[in-house]
């Protein structure tokens, strides 16, 4: 099998596979992901036929996040995914690697040196479950990108300025922020997906701030529009917020790292940006 770094069409192909697996990617994820790290996406090919995908998006020189680990159904069980996995992991030797993997695969990831940090839960509901006024929320372009990066760094295991910039620039997203005395206090982005909308990131210092940002993200959507958000399980306030709103848990993943990571504020992280990119 040949391992190739793919261009944006290859990322789009991997996301088509992800859609077939029920992962419900964003409508503009291919361009956004590729902009975050053009060298971070791989395909495994048999001749000229792609059969496996894997991404390892570099947040910075010392940290990369693994995702889009897919083998086409007709080629599973033949070792092609494992070959691609070994190649990409070895390519990033020395870096800290992170991933959000299905819980059932934890033991397999552990054999590659990944250790469990915490679980994250996917909550599913509808826009009508977050209806209310949000006069405090302002369009995100009114806030300074450096301030947003400061908040993002506070809730992340490593800095990721290029990733954040690419994510916040994706088209047709709903982006809102909160500020006090000129400093960003929180922000959220909702993006259109094949089904409904996903909110992420959502960063807030209090449950009331998180609720305000959810109001802003859902405002103007049809009340029955599906809305999804992924929350780190250690954030008990986030679990309470979405449970009380009537959202239900539909999926869970295990956040794992190959090295110890810095302390970060999971209590401020109400919505993970992406299970595929961290």
Description:
With 278 residues, the chain is α+β, with helices and mostly antiparallel strands. The protein folds into two domains: 2-98, Aminopeptidase (3-Layer(aba) Sandwich); 121-271, Aminopeptidase, CATH 3.40.630.90. It contains eight helices and 13 strands. The longest helix is centred in the N-terminal third of the chain and has 13 residues, at 8-20. The chain is globular and about 55 Å long. The mean pLDDT is 96.
Show the helix and strand layout.
Elements: E1 2-5, H1 8-20, H2 29-36, E2 41-46, E3 49-60, E4 63-71, H3 80-91, E5 96-102, H4 106-110, E6 115-126, E7 138-139, H5 145-155, H6 161-168, E8 174-180, E9 183-192, E10 197-203, H7 207-218, E11 226-232, H8 236-244, E12 248-257, E13 269-271
Helix pairs in contact: 1-2, 2-6
Q: What structural keywords apply?
A:
alpha+beta; 278 residues; 28% helix; Aminopeptidase; 13-stranded mixed β-sheet
Low-confidence stretches: none
Helix/sheet category = alpha+beta
Percent of residues in beta strands:
25-35%
Instruction: Give the tally of β-strands.
Output: 13
Radius of gyration based on Cα positions? 18 Å
State the order of secondary-structure elements, H for helix, E for strand.
EHHEEEHEHEEHHEEEHEHEE
Count of the separate structural domains: 2
The CATH class label of the largest domain is Alpha Beta
CATH topology label of the largest domain: Aminopeptidase
Describe the sheet with the most strands: 13 strands, mixed
CATH architectural arrangement of the largest domain: 3-Layer(aba) Sandwich
User: What's the pLDDT, averaged over the residues?
Assistant: 96
């Amino acid at each position: 099998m040949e391992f190739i770094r793919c261009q944006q069409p290859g990322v789009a192909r991997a996301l088509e596979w992800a859609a077939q697996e029920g992962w419900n990617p964003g409508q503009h994820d291919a361009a956004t992901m590729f902009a975050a790290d053009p060298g971070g996406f791989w395909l495994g090919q048999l001749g000229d036929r792609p059969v496996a995908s894997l991404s390892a998006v570099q947040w910075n020189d010392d940290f990369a996040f693994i995702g889009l680990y897919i083998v086409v159904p007709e080629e599973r069980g033949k070792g092609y995914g494992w070959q691609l996995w070994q190649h990409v992991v070895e390519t990033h030797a020395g870096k800290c690697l992170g991933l959000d993997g299905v819980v059932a695969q934890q033991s397999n990831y552990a054999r590659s040196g990944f250790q469990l940090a915490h679980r994250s839960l996917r909550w599913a509901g509808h826009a009508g479950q977050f209806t209310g006024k949000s006069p405090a929320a302002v369009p995100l372009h009114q806030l300074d990108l450096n301030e947003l990066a400061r908040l993002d760094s506070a809730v992340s295991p490593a800095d990721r300025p290029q990733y954040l910039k690419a994510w916040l620039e994706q088209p047709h997203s709903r982006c809102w922020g909160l500020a006090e005395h000129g400093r960003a206090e929180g922000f959220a982005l909702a993006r259109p997906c094949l089904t409904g909308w996903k909110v992420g990131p959502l960063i807030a210092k209090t449950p009331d701030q998180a609720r305000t940002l959810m109001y802003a993200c859902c405002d103007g959507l049809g009340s029955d529009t599906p809305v999804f958000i992924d929350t780190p399980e250690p954030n008990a306030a986030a679990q309470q917020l979405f449970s009380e709103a009537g959202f239900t848990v539909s999926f869970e993943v295990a956040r794992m790292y190959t090295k110890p990571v810095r302390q970060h504020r999971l209590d401020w992280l109400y919505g993970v940006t992406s299970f595929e990119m961290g």
